[in-house]
Amino acid sequence: MIRTLERKLSALQHKAEDAVNRVRDRHLRLAVTGLSRSGKTAFITALVHQLERAAIDGRLPLWDAARQGRLLGARRVPQQNPQIPTFAYERGLGALFAEPPAWPEATRGVAEVRLELRYRTRHPLRRHLGEVSTLYLDLVDYPGEWLLDLPLLALNYHQWSQQVREQLTRPALAALAAPWQLTEQGEPWRPDRPFDEGEVARLAERYTAYLHACKDELGLHLIQPGRFVLPGEYQGAPMLQFVPWVWDPPVGTPAEDSLYATLGRRFEQYKQHLVQGFYEQHFAGFDRQIVLVDCLAPLNAGAESFADMQQSIARIMESFAYGKSNWWRRLFAPRIDKLLFVASKADHVTPEQHGPLVSLLQHLVQQGRGQARFEGITTECLALASIKATEAGRGMAGGREFPAIKGTSLAGEPLLLFPGEVPAQIPSAGWWQGQQFDFQAFRPLAMSPHQAMPHIRLDAALEFLLGDKLE
Ligand SMILES: Nc1nc2c(ncn2[C@@H]2O[C@H](COP(=O)(O)OP(=O)(O)O)[C@@H](O)[C@H]2O)c(=O)[nH]1
Ligand SMILES: [Mg+2]
């Protein structure tokens, strides 16, 4: 009895401390998102390493607190949320500093790491007292795909199914969808078919395989439900076992235990527990947000992939346009005050292309950025490389010199190339016909764990995200 009371008290105390830190501006929850492979894991790993080394041999001149020597140090401390996996920082470093160096392994789902930053304030009074201040910084990694599910909250099962039916009129999608559209007996599914657990599990599995094929074969991101391809800890749960109803709809009200009614209930459970649950448990607690965008891979992949990325980004942005609907504000009351858009992997292009790359990013996020501004959120666009894997230089071809980047391919071959010109705007149809792009993936450079890693403008990101907190 006393034990439980003690535990409760300590939990309360903990909460109170957390609240005090927050009021004194000493706690910041910084969320990092972006579509799969946009560079979230690399970004967080690099950021933590840079912060840990900042006061020793930091390479962060664009971050005032570091340049002025006010940052005294940073260290990892246990993160505070027992239900969220801890970000696999050590594992990431292990890969980066291995021989040969490799990128951190892909992760799925949400993860978090906490840092304690100690700094000297610039505030004249507190500075005079020699005060050292502390900022607890939580970095939270979560898949941007989860934000794509937001519009589902406004749809019922019937409406969502209708939407998918329309998408399936696109021939490329219809071809991939054929395998899940017929029963094991080769017939279309009927709404009044009695529900069978095993049968539906297999159907959902085939639907999930279709979503994976859309992603892998067509390079699409706008996939719903988003959790089917990135289930996190919910793999195999019944609320991840349903499909849109793309067959003849039911006549009248379907029976409780019919296939149609069961799928409809699971759709509602998915919305409530996973979509709404994510916004309540995580999103509502974020103070600042970074959205990473890999603009280069879709430029390589072609017009369809680029259009899909553009649409996905627009949809991700809807989560930051709170004002549009009151229910949204009421339900989640988010408090984000700064939003940073990042064109990641800028080391894939030659330095004079960084300008066009930022410009392209600005065009991509333009509309959502306007909405965020309207909500009082400060926004910024940057092109950066969390971990620089190339050197800028010059190459020769046909007796002419050209700007080039140099590095090592993932397979270990030396590469020297001019990847191409980044369009400064959303590319037109004509651009796609003339385009000659070659954005190659590079292996990380051989680096020492005892030195800060090479990067491009990671310090500019830090200045935007933390500058005012370390005043
Ligand atoms: N050259 C370069 N490649 C990067 C950088 N960041 C990410 N990448 C590449 O993008 C891949 C996906 O990055 P990752 O951080 O795992 O993406 P996530 O799925 O968003 O966590 C990596 O395996 C790297 O190949 C960077 O700063 N420079
Ligand atoms: Mg990741």
TrEMBL record:
It comes from the Bacteria. Pfam families: DUF463. It comes from Aeromonas bivalvium. The lineage of its organism: Bacteria, Pseudomonadati, Pseudomonadota, Gammaproteobacteria, Aeromonadales. This is YcjX family protein.
